[in-house]
Amino acid sequence: MVADKASDSPNGQNDKLDVLKSTQTIVQLALEKLGYPDEVFELLKEPIRMMTVRIPVRMDDDSIKIFTGYRAQHNDAVGPTKGGVRFHPGVSEKEVKALSIWMSLKAGIVDLPYGGGKGGIVCDPREMSFRELEGISRGYVRAISQIVGPTKDIPAPDVFTNPQIMAWMMDEYSRIDEFNNPGFITGKPLVLGGSHGRESATAKGVTICIDEAVKKKGISVNGARVVIQGFGNAGSFLAKFLHDAGAKVIGISDAYGGLHDPDGLDIDYLLDRRDSFGTVTKLFNDSITNEELLELDCDILVPAAVENQITEENAHKIKASIIVEAANGPTTLEATKILSDRDILLVPDVLASAGGVTVSYFEWVQNNQGYYWSEEEVEEKLYKVMVKAFNAVYNTAEVRKIDMRLAAYMVGVRKMAEAARFRGWI
Ligand code: NAD
To answer: Which keywords label this protein (predicted)?
Structure first.
């Protein structure tokens, strides 16, 4: 399911699946609770800059195909904007805008000197050759080169993009800029100035949030039954970390279905067999649907795939006592309320998945200073940032008697609003 399909059709259900609209709703509520005047919301409800580009790519059959791409820069009051580039057939302008707002919130929550940005290209990389992917990656950078750069807007990986794609993009930007510029993009291979720990950073951050969340619920990761939707960068590393910590991963899924074993899946085998797009279920005949997967009896549920997976249709059927959102926007606002009323602890995306942008920031810092850190140093720094952020959000939720999503938005939006005020914008 992708966000734009739902938001484009004209019935009432669509607003509920409109990720931009629901993001704006909580940003407005968070600003109201913090006592900011309306003009602050007027500034923050949309990106300050949005670019739509058309990218011509010569395909392997020698035809030319034109792809549509976007780059949204939500707000640069705090510093340069930052956020991933998604290659997916469901990418839409609305989705990219919402994702850029979430990036601003994440940067605020983990206290980075950035605003949020996001990009996307409407394409299906699973059906493109290596050479075509290089063409589309380089074409995108040429198209957006005027508005991006290490002090303007710094891209990174997201759904269906990876270190190889970051390497092509960095190389293209360096050619345009006429010097080697690793700080232009993060999530690069190590040999091109990538950071230790970047590839697994999102999952590491989610793991740290799970460790903190189980303490609040009085359970332990060791022996906990876990279900993870999505087996790509975020989901697969997470499965490995939780399995190694003694959890029983009883369900995983990808875009084609899910696998379930109440005694625990063989995670090492599945990691070995998954392809570079996070697909593994096609190898099995007895798969279940993604809908069934979300409703499995478990202790911890981690959506780590796409938007709008937990809705008012299935929220009352969720059996987990803790949900930690590795994906961006997997739960609708209506579902958040149902889960909160059911006393399910929901750790929201803007907090739980902030490990990726945090280590991307570390990568950019290392590129800027030309001095590189060990994996242990990166992990230690990430741990401190995530624990502090988790507790800031959790305590706000407790004190204000609100759910963790609204609390996270309140923590995340404050720095941006203050920076805009000091600059004299509002
Ligand atoms: P990925 O491309 O590596 O993997 C995506 C996974 O989701 C794959 O297993 C794919 O098969 C599955 N999937 C795709 N469509 C699906 C559908 N309709 N139903 C069920 N599964 C589906 O992507 P990723 O980097 O792991 O990102 C996953 C989520 O985590 C996204 O929401 C992304 O925005 C978020 N996220 C990723 C990072 C990061 O650093 N990679 C950081 C923050 C947030």
So the answer is: Oxidoreductase
